[in-house]
Amino acid sequence: MPQTSCDVAIVGGSIAGLRAAQTVARHAPDLTIAMISDETYPPYERPPLSKVGLTKPLLLDALIYPAVNDLKSHGVNFMLGTRAEELDVEGRTIRHSSGALQYRSLVVATGCEAVMPPALSGLPDVFSLRRYEDAISFRRALADPLKSVAIVGAGFIGGELASMVANEGRQVALVDLARKPLGRFGDAVFRSYEALHRGAGIELHFGEQVTDVVQQGNGSRVLKLSDGTKVPADVIVVGVGVRPSTEWLKRSGLRLENGIVCDGTLRAADHVFAAGDAVRWPNRRWGAEMRVEHWTNAAEQGRVAGVNAANDILGSPLEVCANIPYFWSDQHGVRIQFSGHRAGDEEIAESRNSGGSLFLYRKGEIVTGVLAFERRADFVKIRTMLKSELSWQAASSLISREDL
Ligand SMILES: Cc1cc2nc3c(=O)[nH]c(=O)nc-3n(C[C@H](O)[C@H](O)[C@H](O)COP(=O)(O)OP(=O)(O)OC[C@H]3O[C@@H](n4cnc5c(N)ncnc54)[C@H](O)[C@@H]3O)c2cc1C
C-alpha cells in the first residue's frame, strides 16, 4: 500500500475541510496540505441542492467553491474518491482506500450522512439529499410531470424540497411524525411554518407515521399513514435527519458520542482537531455543549481547526471556538433565519408586521436568540448585537413597541 505524508491532513472535502485548507494555506504557507474526500468532486456548495428550481440546470461547475483553484495552485493535494478507513492517533496515520497518509496534525471534517428509515431503504425512486448525485437522481425521477411526490420529514430540507416542487405547480405532500415540525423553536414558529406551507398549497400530514408503502395495480404508489390516509408517492424524498460520519473512527480511541467530542479549541486528541457537522464541543459563548448542523458553523469551525492544526505544528497557542450558531432556509420565497442558542426554556416574544415575523428568545433580561420569517433588516441588527451579551431592553428597542 503506497504511503504518503504531509504536514496537515484534512479528512472531508466539504465546507469545513475547505475552510481548514484555506486557513492553513494563509496562516502557515510553508506547510504541506492533503485533503482526503470520498466524493469524486472537489468541495462544492450543498445549500443550492435543495434550492435551485427544478427547471433550472444544477451545474456542478457553478457549485464548486472558487477557492479550490487557489488551493490547487498553492499545492494542496486533493485526494478525491478516497475513503478514510481508520485513524491511528499514536502513529499519526490515516489508513484509506488506496494506502496510508502520515500527518503532523489532522483536521477531521467528515460531516454527516443522511438517515434512511429501513422501511424505505432500497425501494425504487426513494431519495435522500446530501450529495450532488442525490440531487441529480432526484431531479431525474421528477422529470415526468405526472409523477406524484411525497416528502417524508418536514425539517428545513424537507420544507425546501416541498417548496421547490410546488413552485413548478406540482402537487406535493409533506409528511412528518412530529405533530409540530420545528416545534423546538416554539409553537408560534411552528404555526408560522405550517401556515407558510399550507398557504402554498402543500398537503400537510403532521403527527403521522408511514406504516406502509403500497404499489397499486395501475403502477402508481402510495404511502399509507398511521391515520389510514393514503398519500400519492411515486417519488419519495426523505429528509428525516442526519448522523455524524464517524464510523471510520470507531477504533481510533477518539470520544464519539453523537459526534466527535472536542474541547473548546476543537481538539479531539493529540494533534487531532475536528470541524463542522460532526463536532460536539463546549461553546463558551453560551456555556453549553452543542453539535450544529449548519453551513456557517462548519465554515467557522473549519477556520478555527485550520489555525489550530497549523499552530499545533508551529508551537503557537490554540484559538478557542466560541461562535453564534446561525442558519438560513429559503421556502416559498420566504427567508427563514435563526441566530443564537435555544436551550428550550426561554420565553418567546413575537413581533409580526407586514414585513414578516420575528421571534426573540429571552432568558430573564438576556436575549439568547432570534428567528425571523423575512424581516431581514431587523434580523441582521439583532444577529450583529448577539456577538456580545444582548439585553432584552437593547433588543426590544430595535423593534417598534406595537409590534411586540
Ligand atoms: C441539500 C442541503 C441543503 C442545505 N441547506 C442549508 C442552508 O440553507 N443553510 C444552512 O445553514 N445549512 C444548510 N445545509 C447544511 C450544510 O450544508 C452543512 O452544515 C455543511 O455542509 C456541513 O459541512 P461539513 O464540511 O461539516 O460536512 P459535510 O458537508 O457533510 O461534508 C463532509 C465531507 O466528508 C466526506 N467524508 C465523510 N466520511 C468520509 C470518509 N470516511 N473518508 C473520506 N471522506 C469522507 C463526505 O463525503 C463529505 O464530502 C444544507 C445541507 C444540505 C445537504
Explain this structure.
The chain has 404 residues and is α/β, with parallel strands linked by helices. It folds into three domains: 3-112 and 243-314, FAD/NAD(P)-binding domain; 116-238, FAD/NAD(P)-binding domain (3-Layer(bba) Sandwich), CATH 3.50.50.60; 333-403, Enolase-like, domain 1. It contains nine helices and 29 strands. The protein has helices spanning 15-27, 60-63, 67-74, 132-141, 156-166, 187-199, 295-314, 376-385, 392-396, and strands at residues 3-5, 8-11, 33-36, 77-79, 84-88, 93-96, 99-102, 105-108, 112-114, 126-128, 149-152, 172-176, 203-206, 210-215, 221-225, 230-232, 235-238, 242-244, 260-261, 267-269, 272-274, 279-283, 288-290, 326-331, 334-340, 347-353, 356-363, 366-374, 390-391. The strands form seven sheets. The chain has a six-stranded mixed beta sheet with strand order 4-3-2-8-21-20, covered by helices on one side. Strands 24, 25, 26, 27, 28 and 29 form a six-stranded antiparallel beta sheet that branches. Strands 10-17-11-12-13 form a five-stranded parallel beta sheet, covered by helices on one side. Helix 1 (15-27) crosses helix 3. The N and C termini lie far apart (65 Å). The mean pLDDT is 95. It binds flavin-adenine dinucleotide. Flavin-adenine dinucleotide is lined by residues 11-17, 36-39, 46-47, 49-50, 83-84, 109-112, 129-130, 157, 245, 248, 276-277, 293-296, 298, 327-329. Its cofactor is FAD. This is FAD-dependent oxidoreductase.
